[in-house]
Design brief:
mainly alpha; 5 helices; about 70% helix
Length: about 180
């Protein structure tokens, strides 16, 4: 705020200035809400990326490592005297346990994701404040009893202005 004497209660400000100030403040509020939501979502994206990497590692282990090391490990166990079928079952079970550990890590990281709580709370607070705002009362217009006041709408002002009028006086009339 630039000057404490320029509040809405002060008679020095025109209606246009008050509307412009209110619009600027609402715009700033919306921009701040969006910035807060972006900051919170950035944190969740980072957490999601870590969970995604853990899931990718799990996939790589299941798809690439299993064929490559399964045979080598099974034959190494077989060299100790155990049957070949049992060796392959032991190797397969070990890879399942390892994959399950990475799946658990991915679940934990994805479980840490949460909604943007600060943005939601701020938006609810803004909505609660705006619910108390009442619009300017307007007279009721019943069907069939339309009131027309010359010069009250922009269309009437455009009709009433003549083409020889200079632009400065037209702008001054439309802003009042």
């Amino acid at each position: 705020m630039s000057d404490p004497g320029n509040y809405a209660g002060n008679g020095d400000r025109s209606l246009g200035q008050l509307v412009a100030t209110a619009t600027a403040e609402m715009s700033a509020l919306v921009h701040d809400e969006i910035a807060l939501a972006k900051a919170e979502l950035r944190q969740d994206v980072k957490r999601g990326a870590v969970g995604g990497v853990a899931g990718a590692i799990m996939g790589v282990l299941f798809l690439a490592s299993i064929p490559m090391f399964s045979f080598a490990l099974a034959y190494w166990i077989h060299s100790s005297g155990l049957g070949l079928a049992w060796c392959f079952l032991i190797v397969g079970g070990a890879y399942i346990v390892l994959g399950a550990l990475f799946a658990l890590l991915a679940k934990v990281k994805f479980g840490q994701l949460k909604p943007p709580e600060k943005s939601i709370a701020s938006a609810k607070q803004t909505a609660a404040v705006l619910q108390g705002v009442k619009p300017h009362p307007r007279p009721e217009v019943l069907p069939g009893t339309a009131r027309t006041t010359v010069g009250s709408s922009l269309a009437d002002k455009a009709i009433e202005s003549s083409p020889v009028q200079d632009k400065a006086s037209a702008v001054a009339r439309s802003s009042t």
